[in-house]
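User: Predict the full complex structure for these chains.
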Amino acid sequence: MVPPEYYLLLSAAVFCIGLFGVLTRKNALYFLMSVELMLNAANINLIAFSLFWGNLTGQTFALFVIALAAAEVAIGIGIILVLYRNFGTVSVTDATTMRW
Amino acid sequence: MTTDETESAGSTMIPGLAAIGLFIVMAVAFVQASFGEPVLFPEGESIVAHIGYALFDLQNDMGTIASEGFLAAFLIIAIGLDVAVDSAIFLAKREEGGSIVSAIADGGWESPADAPDATADTQPLSDGGDK
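Assistant: Here is the predicted structure of the two-chain assembly.
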């Protein structure tokens, strides 16, 4: 079996790439993709430790995280559509008002 | 889509350093941690089947692989996904000239009678507006 440290390092790398994207990107689509990376980093940990401990709770929970990510993308893309329609851009820094 | 996509090197330097620093801290912690002996799954057991049993809380069928029941979480996430789909459709609607234009409406009219050629076209608009 691959030692869990390798999974953790992979997960940390993916999480940090997502964090970098969240901190630097202005495009809402890239922002959403970066959040997905962070969620998938958590999934790697859940599945790695599920395998390590021989317990299915982690893998089952990873399925819920995937479903949560799908819901988040559905709403996120809806928000991006409205953002583009009302501001003419998908930059998260341009939408500074709650009303237009 | 955005006009200011290209960030300057200075604006990404600090977030980049923060991300790399966080990775180094986590990597040091992970490498120094000890996780004990792995337990692993028993041989010959279907993991996918057991995930199904765990999702629907079928305790009698769970067998030798340890898990918990997730029926309540399954139902809650199902409702959450329904809400997400409804929200996405609501957000995707747009109003043009006072009428709601939706991706799943009958050609953009709230009722077939509102269509300009409603009297000429006798076919029902049950195919999503495609004529």
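Strands of chain B lie at 94-96, 99-101.
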